[in-house]
TrEMBL record:
<keyword id="KW-0479">Metal-binding</keyword>
<feature type="binding site">
    <location>
        <position position="69"/>
    </location>
    <ligand>
        <name>Mg(2+)</name>
    </ligand>
</feature>
<dbReference type="GO" id="GO:0017111">
    <property type="term" value="F:ribonucleoside triphosphate phosphatase activity"/>
</dbReference>
<comment type="similarity">
    <text>Belongs to the HAM1 NTPase family.</text>
</comment>
<dbReference type="InterPro" id="IPR029001">
    <property type="entry name" value="ITPase-like_fam"/>
</dbReference>
<dbReference type="GO" id="GO:0046872">
    <property type="term" value="F:metal ion binding"/>
</dbReference>
<keyword id="KW-0546">Nucleotide metabolism</keyword>
<protein>
    <recommendedName>
        <fullName>dITP/XTP pyrophosphatase</fullName>
        <ecNumber>3.6.1.66</ecNumber>
    </recommendedName>
</protein>
<dbReference type="Pfam" id="PF01725">
    <property type="entry name" value="Ham1p_like"/>
</dbReference>
<feature type="binding site">
    <location>
        <begin position="177"/>
        <end position="178"/>
    </location>
    <ligand>
        <name>substrate</name>
    </ligand>
</feature>
<keyword id="KW-0378">Hydrolase</keyword>
<feature type="binding site">
    <location>
        <begin position="150"/>
        <end position="153"/>
    </location>
    <ligand>
        <name>substrate</name>
    </ligand>
</feature>
<comment type="subunit">
    <text>Homodimer.</text>
</comment>
<dbReference type="GO" id="GO:0005829">
    <property type="term" value="C:cytosol"/>
</dbReference>
<dbReference type="GO" id="GO:0036220">
    <property type="term" value="F:ITP diphosphatase activity"/>
</dbReference>
<feature type="active site" description="Proton acceptor">
    <location>
        <position position="69"/>
    </location>
</feature>
<feature type="binding site">
    <location>
        <position position="172"/>
    </location>
    <ligand>
        <name>substrate</name>
    </ligand>
</feature>
């Protein structure tokens, strides 16, 4: 069975492929030379954007597709950057400029609680969709630590390990928002496809 992973983010492809390693569903992506159009993410929720990405690409390729919409929600910032996580610092945002903005917004604020959210959607060309949500709680630290992972990982401390997600790549793929959503998908994917 084959499914297309509808993302332009190579770090997501790496993490999701690792989680599906040894599982007998074949994951295709842009790294197999398949080109896909850009999907406009104009929804207010992770669920809406995830479903939109999966559905549009599934119809475009006429095969089942998976999409990942994810982001960081910071308690003291009323859930920001949330669905705007990728573009937090503007149109030409990079992980570095996003992290700079995050640290600045939290300066002088004691409450550091945050969570990562991931909504994975599996869509079929018929329009059928199945969505799965995973979350991980942590705390934002001002000084980045670790070089693995991507995005906000160097600033996201996991209290149970006293390490940021960028310091614990093998563990990240077992405990992360993405890992949790994908575990739920794995239980059902073979039946759905
Ligand atoms: P696609 O839409 O093509 O999948 P994207 O990077 O634009 O790629 P999103 O719209 O879902 O994906 O934005 C997710 C952003 O949230 C991402 O760019 C990171 O800044 C952040 N993020 C998501 N998961 C993360 C993780 O595991 N670790 C660190 N940051 C993460």
């Amino acid at each position: 069975k084959k499914v297309f992973l509808a993302t332009g983010n190579k770090k997501k492809i790496k993490e999701i492929s690792a989680i599906f390693e040894g599982f007998d569903v074949e994951i295709l992506s842009i790294q197999d030379g398949i080109e896909i159009p850009e999907v406009v993410e104009d929804g207010d929720t992770f669920e809406a954007n995830s479903a939109k990405k999966a559905l549009e690409i599934s119809k475009f390729l006429d095969m089942p597709a998976i999409a990942d919409d994810s982001g960081l929600c910071v308690e003291a910032l009323d859930g920001a950057p949330g669905v705007y996580s990728a573009r937090y610092s503007g149109e030409n945002a990079t992980d570095d400029t996003n992290n700079e903005k995050l640290v600045k917004e939290l300066s002088g604020i004691e409450d550091r609680r945050a969570k990562f959210v991931c909504v994975i959607t599996l869509a079929k060309p018929s329009g059928e969709i199945h969505s799965f949500r995973g979350e991980i709680e942590g705390e934002i630290v001002d000084t980045p630590r670790g070089t693995d992972g991507f995005g906000y990982d160097p600033h996201f401390l996991v209290p149970e390990y006293s390490k940021t997600l960028a310091e614990i790549p093998e563990i990240k793929n077992k405990i992360s928002h993405r890992a949790k959503a994908l575990e739920l998908l794995k239980k059902e994917i073979k039946e759905i496809l």
